[in-house]
Fold this protein.
Amino acid sequence: MAQPSFDQTDLNDIFLRAFKDCTTGIINSLSTDANDPATATAVQTILAQLNYDYNRLVYVIDIIQSRVYRDPAWGDAAVAVYDMIATSIDSYFSHPSLPIRGPLLVQHHLMKVLQAQFRSMMAADTWSSGLTLFLAQLCRTEDSIGRLTPGIMLHILSGMVESSRLFGGDNLDLLFEIISSAGPVLDTQALDVVNSFGEKLQLLQERVKDRGNVSVMAVFGLMRLRELGWGSETIKTS
């Protein structure tokens, strides 16, 4: 009986599919507890199979973000996973054409995926609580590989405040999550950033004027928190 033959491309495809199946299973089974010691072991298992292949790294980040988008309880743990990857990845891990290596590649693709996911979310009637809470966490964190710059925070706020879908579902509450997380950071930046942030809050005040007393008072409470230097209270419209 003739034996089936495989060329190198066939073998590469088989190994890649196995890697994807393994990675998907691992990521989707990780705990929502950012301090679970099993998470570090799982990350090392994935990294050991990257084989310096940038496409595999891309797939890992894509799968992480897929879970982030649909699982609002996993945001803190996802940040921890990214930091484990960035800390452990070989500093010589390179991109075929970009002049960056190691952790910067992780950051590069994460920001690229976040931009695409945020754009997609803004086109949806109901925003993703998973993605929004993850973005809020990235606003608060001080030393994560995924930490958002003030410019990105302002871009996110602009998109949400100006959105025609702001008052659908829980979208306004999700905006409050971003504001309460980004606000304390933005108010410590240069004057132009502080002023830009203030302008977005003023626009929000204008937009909620005709939305009922609950929304108006919620925004008033948010502005009051800012005047007091921010606090731990959670502002909600319901």
